[in-house]
Amino acid sequence: MTADPPTPGFPPEPPPEGPDEELEFLTPREEPVRFSVRYGEDARPPGRPQLRTRAVTLGAGWPVVQFRLPASAQADPRAYTLLEREVSAAVVLERRYGGEKFAELFTRIVGYDLDCAEPFVLYRRAAGAPLAECLPRLGADEQQRIVGQLALAVRLLDDAGLVHRALAPDSVRWDGSHVRLAEPHAALRAGEPREPFGTAPWASPEQRAGHGTADPRDDLWSLARIAYLLLSGHPSPPGRADRADGPPEDLGDYRRLAALAQSGLFAPAAAGRPAPVEFLRLLRLTDPLAHAVAAADPLAAGRARYDAEIARRREPWRRDTDPDEPYDPDRPDDPARPSGQGAPPRRGLRALLFGEQPARPSVALTDSPGPGLASGPGPVAGLDDPGADPGAPPARTCPHCLLPVVYDESLLVTIDAKGNRIPLDLSREHRPGRRNDLLRTAYHLCPHGGEGDEAHELPVPYLTNGRPLSIAFVGSSAVGKTHLMAAMLGEVELGGLEPYGLKCLPLNPEAHRTFLRERVQSLQQGRQLGRTGQQTFARFADGLLVSAPGRTPRPVVFFDLAGEDLAQDGPVTSFLMGVDAFVFVVDPLRALRMPSLDPLRQRYGLSRRDLGDEAFTTVLNRLPRSADGRIAAPAALAVNKSDLMRFEPAVDRWLGRALPGRHDPGAEAAESRDAYAFLDHHASPAWLRPFDDCARCTLHFVAATGGQARGDRFPHGARPRRVLAPLLSVFAACGLIRGRD
Q1: What's the pLDDT score for residue 495?
Q2: Which 3 state secondary structure label does DSSP give 16?
Q3: Coil, helix or strand at residue 381
Q4: What is the mean pLDDT of residues 335-360?
Q5: Of the candidates 67, 76, 73, 83, which has an alpha carbon nearest to the alpha carbon of residue 125?
Q6: Which residues contact 29 (CB under 8 A, 6 or more apart)?
Q7: If pLDDT is split at 50, 70 and 90, which confidence band does 89 have?
Q8: Three-class secondary structure of residue 213 per DSSP
Q9: Distance, CA of 132 to CA of 130 (rounded, Å)
Q10: How far is Cα 632 from Cα 313, in angstroms, rounded to an integer?
Q11: Angle at 283 (CA atoms; ends 277, 288), nearest 5 degrees
Q12: In what helix (H) or strand (E) does residue 111 lie, and over which residues does it extend?
């Protein structure tokens, strides 16, 4: 990388004293570079108490400014989030406008490192002085140019989807010819929830209060207030109250402020202000983007292929059934089944291996509202096997061995701290409350379990509630399946599913506590989780009882097998034939042809695999197909470790945003479209095979940890991003979330 010359417009400063050191960082294009470096003295930047700033000289004499998050401030996880968000906004602006003549309107980023012990960002030194210091010597022409350039800057921010939120006389600089906005340390993406920021009169009323969502017109309020200061000579009407929730009372006293008075810029709500491009027209300034030729979108072809495939898949659905109906594996007229067939039974392991046709087990739901079992499990009319004895208890397919299990109180056990199974006799317990409490923590032996490693049991609520839902995480070893599941269930534990109308209880309290302690809490404390060990018999990692108001609770169990087990056709993976939904986990280091990932591949001893993930291939080849050749079970394709590509536009569009507070099928489809196009462009077609093979498959950008491990720890803690998105997609497809599929 060639060092830029010192920024003109200010006298050069002597280089910081002290011996040269070396500093390695990434450029805005994510290219690693290394410079000899000398540091100046630390200072506290105004309004950013968690950071430290200092002058830095790179190489032979390139002066830059560093903003650094010291170790002493890293106890607050929000401090890191704010720095990461700032870097994201600065990279967006540099990539979008760095080669344009108006790039100097912004403080230009030089590089960053968010994974080192003290994360930092480097900027070019900004020329000029704050407007607050320049006011006495500004002429009328300069004032007009400042207002016009600020309007242009807000227009450019708007086109980049950003709201700066920190425009004020002490943060905007003027060097005699150019306005320069401060570092985007407070920037939000347009449409994100507003966070309270700024002071009167410079920040808009909505921004100060933190109401609604960030809007580019928030910056226009700040611009109007700066213009009022420039053209009137004072920030507020002298001698009059200024609540800063509307136009200054003396606005009409200044002829040069007529345009501001008529523009609506001082409307208390953003919706009442003009758009940035309209304000440019009001100022009779040319919009530099009006005739700009848009850069070729490298993902356009992938998006078109996604649209064509979705349209092709929907056509036969329109002829046969409602495409928005949730997936039901027992619906006789499911168009994903071979024509002419009713709902096939779930075949047991013996039937799968030797071709036997067992009687179809019941999939009845119970009327019981949750895990309470005072009256014992019972069938629901119309949902049981029509040929079954109406007085018989319902059967459930064991998720381990795929054989039907009927609730039998003589098979109840508890498990002590040493793992011993102790029979539970409830024949003399007639108190409903006590009985329910015992059943809540009890297990039911599977009568098909056999001896040794194949002996297994099921939590009682698995057999006594609605139809179970089993979800398997699929991917090779070290792709992050275990971290993703732990992050996902950690979000569930924090109430992440409640905005979607779902309540969760543990399927077995003790087993759930163990999973939280050994997996979730370890991850939340910044520890890297060990690899999942190989098994001789597949067992689910954790289970939940998920309910929505007025609906029968459903058990949901999660399988996390070692990649080595998933990549081979063996008895351990027989359980796959009974799995209801899949989460396929993509590792970017193995999948993506991106040079910026090469240093990490080298560090971890990984190489790209153009043939895709062998666990994907083995699992997909093993699952039964419908008449159209596709797998009926819903799936989600999760591009894990997306923080490694966090500044790529398609990734940044989603990873930087929180999930919406309700299930949004439109946003889910838009993310799937972007993720499909991203993989289509950067990876071989083999990595999209789950989408190609599954009748219903959404795609998501997720980050289970949000950073790279150093040794066995994540130096800045685990910061999960959008990890619930794949689970919400599966829940919607399986009918757990009300509304459109």
Answers
A1: 94
A2: coil
A3: coil
A4: 39
A5: 67
A6: 95, 596
A7: very high
A8: strand
A9: 5
A10: 13
A11: 45
A12: strand 109-113
